[in-house]
UniProtKB/TrEMBL annotation:
Species annotation: Paracoccus aestuariivivens
Protein name, as recorded: Chromosomal replication initiator protein DnaA
Amino-acid biosynthesis recorded as keyword: no
Subcellular location: Cytoplasm
Any Gene Ontology CC annotation: cytoplasm
Stretches the record annotates as Domain IV, binds dsDNA: 327-446
Function: Plays an essential role in the initiation and regulation of chromosomal replication. ATP-DnaA binds to the origin of replication (oriC) to initiate formation of the DNA replication initiation complex once per cell cycle. Binds the DnaA box (a 9 base pair repeat at the origin) and separates the double-stranded (ds)DNA. Forms a right-handed helical filament on oriC DNA; dsDNA binds to the exterior of the filament while single-stranded (ss)DNA is stabiized in the filament's interior.
Domain Chromosomal replication initiator DnaA C-terminal span(s) in chain numbering: 354-423
Domain of life the protein comes from: Bacteria
An example Gene Ontology molecular-function term: DNA replication origin binding
Length: 446
């Protein structure tokens, strides 16, 4: 049931929090209404029991039958925190003495080997490799930024792992900015700020993921700034990621922004078709191990690479679902099945076309003025393209007829309906018109 519970929890807490907090947990058993959850570190169990124990309890109770308590265990079994249903927030757990508990768990799938390199991420990848290979500190800090799901966390984990392999004695500290803040706030509360500072200042490599999170959190920013400066002054490597460039992070102090920029700043660009296809091929190879014997029709991966452009996480999720579905149905993965099984994802990824864009493209194509689209002229050379634009607006946007009418110079919805019908009729009779419309549609979808 843990698999099912994880799915539900992911919906409740969101993908990112899920990946950070719930993903590393394992359900080890349910005994007399007490579910036992194993956590890799005490830090994690502490945070999860404080923030997510109610959610976990509810989900397990629903899926498994009566569960009244959730008990969190760290692997070492040294701490055992019990969260009863509706319990008050607990006293702080005894402070972790070992810094291994400070660093967030690394995802074993996020390695350099599994990272597909293409034009959009080659610079970020090269910089990450260089830093991971160590040697004299070259870029400090290394600042990686880019949109959601483009591989920032993947690269961060890959760097951390690589450094640990190459320099086992190095103290690598990887954590999200959210975790940094949590540790800091906890230290303030427990009056152990000195220990906190000490811990951070003895690391050889500090990696902070999603630093935009501490924007607007003044005292955490302040502490981060001091930690950062101390480490840089000692020549320690720092690696930071964010969802945007340093200069564009709002509510971040200028002196921090400028410190963040003083090393190397590289961005991960949105993926292109080739990169998406490469990622799909590599994921397919690993899925084949998981689902042996599954047949994949030619063209399916190309179709997905064309159609799902939002981010790599969505792309992976789509492929995962497709393989699971096909294996359940015991069928080959065909284009038809892909379209059926991923209808929602494909729809969400459809490029949104505006009526204005349609009018512009159609006017351009027929060499008429854009103003004629909304103007009153009734000559065929203008009226026909205008009707084609109405038709495409109806087909390609979710606007209603009255709305479309308004965008066409305040025409009545019956006029729009008439135009749409007219083109539908002509289309079936007139091959060259049909081809024109297909071409326009493709141009607009591109
Ligand atoms: P971010 O931290 O930028 O939001 P992640 O690093 O979490 O994104 O990436 C989201 C998912 O996409 C992860 O499962 C990651 O492994 C995968 N991914 C992203 N970029 C690549 C790539 N170039 N090659 C292989 N997998 C990738
Ligand atoms: Mg991330």
């Amino acid at each position: 049931i843990w698999g099912q519970a994880r799915e539900e929890l992911q919906k409740i807490v969101g993908t990112d929090s899920f990946a950070t907090w719930i993903e590393p947990l394992r359900l080890t058993g349910v005994d007399e209404g007490t579910a036992t959850i194993a956590c890799p570190t005490r830090f994690l169990s502490d945070w999860v029991s404080r923030h997510y124990s109610d959610d976990i309890l509810k989900v397990l109770d629903r899926l498994n039958g009566p569960v009244h308590r959730v008990s969190f265990e760290t692997r070492s079994q040294t701490s055992r925190q019990v969260a009863a249903a509706n319990s008050e927030p607990k006293r702080p757990a005894p402070r972790a003495a070992v810094d291994e508990e400070l660093t967030a768990p690394l995802d074993h799938r996020f390695t350099f080997d599994n990272f597909i390199v293409g034009k959009p991420n080659e610079l970020a990848h090269a910089a990450a490799r260089r830093v991971a290979e160590g040697g004299p500190v070259t870029f400090n800090p290394l600042f990686l930024y880019g949109g959601v799901g483009l591989g920032k966390t993947h690269l961060m984990h890959a760097i951390a792992r690589e450094i640990q392999i190459r320099q086992p004695e190095a103290k690598v500290l990887y954590l999200s900015a959210e975790q940094f803040m949590y540790r800091f706030v906890q230290a303030l509360r427990d009056r152990t700020v000195m220990d906190f500072k000490e811990l951070f200042r003895t690391v050889s490599v500090l990696m902070v993921d999603d630093v935009q999170f501490i924007a607007g959190k003044d005292s955490t920013q302040e502490e981060f700034f001091h930690t950062f400066n101390t480490l840089v002054d000692q020549g320690k490597q720092i690696i930071i990621s964010a969802d945007r460039a340093p200069g564009e992070i709002k509510d971040m102090e200028d002196r921090i922004k400028s410190r963040l920029q003083c090393g190397l700043v590289v961005d991960l660009h949105p993926t292109d078709y080739e990169l998406r296809l490469g990622i799909l091929q590599s994921k397919t190879d690993s899925f084949r191990v998981q689902y042996p014997g599954l047949q994949l029709a030619p063209g399916v991966l190309e179709f997905l690479a064309h159609r799902i452009t939002s981010n790599v996480r969505v792309l992976e999720g789509a492929l995962q679902r497709l393989f699971a579905f096909a294996s359940l149905m015991g069928r080959e993965i065909t284009l038809d099945m892909t379209q059926e099984c991923l209808a929602d994802i494909l729809r969400a990824n459809d490029r949104k076309v505006s009526i204005e864009e349609i009018q512009r493209k159609v006017a351009e194509h027929y060499n008429i003025r854009l103003s004629d689209m909304i103007g009153p002229k009734r000559v065929r050379t203008v009226a026909r393209p205008r009707q084609i634009a109405m038709y495409l607006s109806k087909q390609m946007t979710s606007r209603s007829l009255p709305e479309i009418g308004r965008r066409f110079g305040g025409r009545d919805h019956t006029t729009i309906m008439h135009g749409v019908r007219k083109i539908e009729e002509l289309r079936t009779a007139d091959r060259s018109l049909a081809e024109d419309i297909d071409l326009l549609r493709r141009l607009l979808e591109a």
